[in-house]
Amino acid sequence: MAENRSTVLVVGLGRFGTALALELESLGHEVLAMDARESVVQQWASRITHAVQGDSTDHDTLISLGVKDLAHAVVAIGEDVEASILTTSALSELGVTDVWAKATSAAHARILGLVGATHVVYPEQDSGRRLAHLVTGRVADYMEIDDDFVLIETGVPSNVHNQTLADAQLRAAYGVTVVSVKPPGGRYTYATPSTVLDGLLLVAGTKADVARFAAAAPDLG
Ligand code: ATP
Known about the structure:
Low-confidence stretches: 1-5
CATH superfamily of the largest domain: NAD(P)-binding Rossmann-like Domain
Number of domains: 2
Order of helices and strands: EHEHEHEHEHEHEEHHEEEH
Shape: elongated
Distance between the termini: 50 Å
Radius of gyration: 22 Å
Bound molecules: adenosine-5'-triphosphate
CATH architecture of the largest domain: 3-Layer(aba) Sandwich
Number of helices: 9
Strand content: 15-25%
Number of strands: 11
Mean pLDDT: 93
């Protein structure tokens, strides 16, 4: 069934796995989705390229689905930690190059790495941390690019409102880089020294520098 390496295997059609599978489909990828529950397989069968019922901890089942020819797989099982670990280990053992796995705790994440997950995601922790930046009302969007490098969408601090980027000296004052500016009613454009600071900004920098900048930004509420 899994005839080419662009097919992505998604194991577990809970909320996370289903959202992932449908988004991959909308991006034009072929998805091979697998879940132990026949009812969820039936529910999504019409919207996913291949949806099959089966136990992903069973090597023979995985082999019969041709998973060893796949480059990408996501183990989207959270609650059943044992099934998550056994599935990740089986996919790694069968030669899937890129095995992403969803963790529900730090210990779970560590074990997934030990049994062959090439990437471990922690969606609940990530979205909780992200939300902490948004609830203050000064940050419209927050993206962690690296351990200590983030990109935020925020407003213009009142002391530099309507100044050009060159005059505002934000890098000297905060250590941040304004990447792009969206004027009121306009669209995002790349920031240049002559760009006027009005509307929304995409600001990049270390967590501490960006947090200092966001604290000076207006409440967007
Ligand atoms: P959600 O994404 O909804 O938060 P969750 O993190 O609670 O889900 P689970 O409900 O544990 O994750 O698992 C997601 C799906 O994985 C379920 O639909 C479940 O049937 C499926 N699943 C669990 N174990 C296996 C298994 N061994 N083989 C195949 N599918 C499995």
